[in-house]
Amino acid sequence: MISKRRTLQGKLELSELSFGASSLGGLYRAVTDEDAVNVLEAAWKSGIRYFDTAPFYGFGLSECRLGRFLADRKAADFMLSTKVGRLLEPVANKADIPKSDFVNPLPNRPVYDYSYSGIMRSFEQSKERLCHVPIDIAFIHDIGTLTHGKDGNEQHYRDLVEGGYRALDELKRNGDIKAIGLGVNEVKVCLRSMADLDIDLILLAGRYTLLDRTAEHGLLAACERHGTELIIGGVFNSGILATGDVEGAYFDYALAPDHVRQMVRQLETVCHEFNVKLAHAAIRFPLKSRQVSSVLIGTGKAQSIQKSVDAFDASIPDAFWDACDEIVGGWGSQA
C-alpha cells in the first residue's frame, strides 16, 4: 500500500508512486474502457493518489478516461496533472488520424502550439475532456530539440517564452492550477527553461534511472538551486530494466544497442549477488535523490499495479546502489 507522501513546494502532496496514464490512450496496445477502469481502480486501491495524463495520449482518449474515473472522487483526495503544447483538431475521417504508437485513438490530429492562445486553448480543451476535474499541475509538453529538432524548437521555444508561459502564469495566479512544470525526455531543455522561466517541477522521462544517469550531471544541482522538484518517469528505459538483457529488449524507444545490453548484464549480476530484482531496483532508484518527489509508472493491466507496488516496497541495501554506481559510471556526463 502506497501511503507515504512527499510535499511539493510546501503546497502539493504527491504519492511517492504515481500513475502515468499514457497507457490509457492505447500506447502500443489496445486498452478497452473496462481495462482502463480496472487499472485505475487497482491504482487507487494501492494508495496511488497522483495521476498524470496529456492530450497527446490517445489524442484525447487518456484524458477522457481518467476524467470519468476521477469525477466520482473528492478533488481533495488526489492530485491531477495534464500537459499543454499540443492542440487537438478533429478529423472527419478515420483515415485522416495521424499514424502513431497509440492504438485506436480518438479522431483528432495533434498540432503543436506553445503560444499564449495555444496554451489557453489547450488547457480549456483538457478541462472539457477531464470532466472539469480540477487540474493541479500543467506541464509544458515535449518542448526541446529531441522532439522538434534544433531549428524547429527555436520557434516553439520563442513562442513559449514570449507568450505561452504568460498564459500558464495567469492560470497559476488565478488559481486554475497550482504549479507549472515541464514534461520532457531531455536534460538540456530543463536547464535552459529553468534559467529563463520560473519552473515549479519537471516530469523527466528516462534520464534519471538505474541505467541512464544524465540528470546527475547538472540537473539535480540546478533543481536544488532553483527549488524545482522532479517527478521521474520512464524508469525502465522503455523496457530493458524490466525485462533485463533479453533478445529484442528495448532501450529509449528502440532496440537496445550492444553497449547498453552489456551494462544491463552487469547490473543483473549485481542484482543476483544482492538478491534484488532488477525491476525493483529500477522503481526504487529515483527516490534516492531528495529532489525527486514521485516515481511515475504506467500500465494498461490491473495486475501490473500490484507488481509495481511490491517493487516499490522492496528493501534494498546501500551497498547494492554503490555497486550499481560503479558499473554505470559517468553515463550522461557528455550529454
Please characterize this protein's 3D structure.
Helices cover 40% and strands 19% of the residues. The protein is built from eleven helices and 14 strands. The chain has helices at residues 33-45, 61-70, 116-129, 145-173, 188-196, 219-226, 240-243, 258-274, 278-284, 302-312, 318-328; strands spanning 5-8, 12-15, 17-20, 50-52, 79-84, 86-90, 108-112, 137-141, 179-184, 201-205, 229-233, 250-251, 254-255, 292-297. The strands form four sheets. Strands 3-4-5-8-9-10-11-14 form an eight-stranded parallel beta barrel, surrounded by four helices. Strands 1-2 form a two-stranded antiparallel ribbon. The protein has a two-stranded antiparallel sheet with strand order 6-7. Helix 9 (278-284) packs across helix 10. The chain is globular. It starts with a strand and ends in a 7-residue tail after the last helix. The model has no long low-confidence stretch (mean pLDDT 93).
Topology diagram in text:
Elements: E1 5-8, E2 12-15, E3 17-20, H1 33-45, E4 50-52, H2 61-70, E5 79-84, E6 86-90, E7 108-112, H3 116-129, E8 137-141, H4 145-173, E9 179-184, H5 188-196, E10 201-205, H6 219-226, E11 229-233, H7 240-243, E12 250-251, E13 254-255, H8 258-274, H9 278-284, E14 292-297, H10 302-312, H11 318-328
Helix pairs in contact: 1-10, 3-4, 8-11, 9-10
Major sheet: 8 strands, parallel, barrel
Counting helices, strands and paired strands, the structural category is alpha/beta
Shape descriptor reads globular
Unreliable parts: none
Strand content: 15-25%
> What is the N-to-C succession of helices and strands?
EEEHEHEEEHEHEHEHEHEEHHEHH
| Average pLDDT, all residues | 93
End-to-end Cα distance, whole Å, is 37 Å
What would you call the quaternary organization? single chain
> How many extended strands?
14
Output the number of helix runs: 11
Helical residue percent? Answer: 25-40%
Strand order of the biggest β-sheet? 3-4-5-8-9-10-11-14
Pfam family, one: Aldo_ket_red
Organism: Thalassospira aquimaris
Protein name: Aldo/keto reductase
InterPro entries: AKR (IPR020471), NAD(P)_OxRdtase_dom_sf (IPR036812), NADP_OxRdtase_dom (IPR023210)
